[in-house]
Specification:
mainly alpha
């Protein structure tokens, strides 16, 4: 199983856009947070919600469409990073400012969809030994 499928509890044969529309289980938030070594505040910021909103979610229920879409994006990039480097290295790497990201950390860059795409480009190049 891919990291994405494990983090989101998404069946391998699932169609991503349909899975997202049905609602990602709220329990995926905790799995992503633990896997990436994020604090509750960091994951809340990445999901554009307050920590209070996070604490009110029922982990057995699916989240709304916006939150599901955002969780998918975060799980997808985290899966990409961990499949390329492993969890331990990826945890350290997301906290290091990078010149290729304008001096921001990859974690800061994950705040937007455009940032996630840029992060995928930079990480992909680095994983293949191409300077950035």
């Amino acid at each position: 199983m891919s990291a994405l499928s494990i983090l989101l509890e998404m069946p391998e044969q699932a169609t991503p856009h349909l899975f997202i529309r049905k609602g990602v289980p709220a329990s995926a938030i905790q799995r992503i947070m633990l896997s990436a070594g994020l604090s509750q505040k960091e994951i809340a910021d990445l999901l554009y919600v307050s920590t209070r909103t996070l604490s009110r979610l029922d982990e057995h229920e699916p989240v709304n469409l916006q939150l599901s879409d955002r969780l998918y994006q975060l799980a997808d990039i985290w899966g990409f990073l961990t499949e390329g480097w492993g969890e331990d290295y990826a945890r350290r790497w997301i906290r290091k400012p990078l010149r290729a990201l304008g001096g921001e950390t990859p974690l800061q860059t994950m705040m937007t969809s455009a940032g996630i795409e840029r992060l995928r480009q930079v990480a992909g190049r680095l994983q293949h030994g191409i300077p950035v």
